[in-house]
Amino acid sequence: MSRSKPAPLEPDTKVGGYRIVRKLASGGFGVVYLALTQDGQRVAIKEYLPASLVERPAGEMIPVADPEKLSLYRLGLKSFFEEGRSLAQISHPSVVGVLNFFRENETVYMVMNYLEGASLQEFIIIARDLKRKKIFRESTIRSLYDEILQGLRVVHQHKMLHLDIKPANIFVTDDDKPILIDFGAAREVIGQEDRRFRPMYTPGFAAPEMYKRDASFGPWTDIYAVGSCIYASMTGYPPYEATQRLEKDRLPMQLSKLRGIYSDNLIEIVEWCMALDPLARPQSVFNLQKELGAEHPRRYTQLSLSEKLRMQFDELVTDTKARVDKARQVTGLAGQFGGRDKP
Fold this sequence. Notes:
Helices cover 38% and strands 15% of the residues. It is globular. It starts with 13 loop residues before the first strand and ends in a 15-residue tail after the last helix. It contains ten helices and eleven strands. Helix 3 runs antiparallel to helix 5 (219-235) and helix 5 (219-235) crosses helix 8. The chain has two domains: 17-113, Phosphorylase Kinase, domain 1, CATH 3.30.200; 117-308, Orthogonal Bundle (Transferase(Phosphotransferase), domain 1). It is of the alpha+beta class. The longest helix has 24 residues, at 305-328. A six-stranded antiparallel β-sheet has the order 1-2-3-4-8-7, with helices on one face. The protein has a three-stranded antiparallel β-sheet with strand order 9-10-11.
């Protein structure tokens, strides 16, 4: 029998001087609430509440960890607390603002600015459903990710990594400001410590080294995810998972479909960011910023007839294989955006 998820805090519960209004969102490692300060200001509060490690009945406030998982719970708790401490030192419009963080009820709470708007993932799905040739204009993509990279550069300067960059974690406010949210440090610490809790990554956006135990992470790890987000902003779909790419890399073929639609330079930037070899990627956000914002003539190379024919043949082979695989499966996994990118 599957275990039930720990219950969120109930409305009107008070923690750290804040009053919970309602749950906004929940994931495998925490719950986000809308809350009010003592003077009535709205804030978002994220509670560390890993569903795989703790239980909490409705109406209770203190999560209870299984004895054999207590040390792992505390390890993630420490990482979550340190993440709050680090983010509180960062003041940048493209990074979620942490106003306060505190321990209470044997867990940790992170108080953040309350944001109004929608995730980039929602915008991508809406744009994709319009079935236009371009999901977003190239100028929009370059401007959007320039702002994100400015914030990410500051994060890296504070010796932090995001480790969970994806369209769902890029929030676009009502006044069109993109903001990085939901850092993944606690998830990564727990995942590295115990194999039972891996993988914890969003397929298509996690760099290949994140699937390897004791691998070295760095700015290049976040940069892979940025490249994946740009790809999704161009195609409307996430790219293939890194583990699949290691078996057969279809990224070059997928990117070739975008030739003539987006500039050669933007396509090359995505390929550079998403190199399977970490050393082949930009090693710093600054290097990527320089190329993304470079002022040079943009070439748009069209596919040749032979390339189009080869691509159609490869699509036919891939579609046939996919149908065979689907027939063999009892259930299939949908992509993050409710579908898969066709190679």
